[in-house]
Design brief:
By secondary structure, the protein is mainly alpha-helical. The chain is built from 3 helices and no strands.
Length: 56
């Protein structure tokens, strides 16, 4: 057998999968970019969410 034939027969390991938090951040970023033209529609939702968090 030629040189390097042993390496060619090996299956390379898969890359590590990103963590759950990294996937959630990527998903949220993608959704935010997809909705960027609709920020005016999301403003009342953000205002209501802030009021809900602020109220005791």
């Amino acid at each position: 057998m030629g040189e390097g034939s042993e390496r060619a027969a090996l299956i390379p390991p898969e890359a590590a999968k990103p963590s759950l938090s990294a996937r959630l951040r990527a998903w949220a970023r993608d959704e935010m970019l997809a909705q960027s033209m609709r920020w005016r529609l999301w403003a009342p939702v953000a205002f209501g969410g802030g009021a809900a968090i602020y109220s005791p």
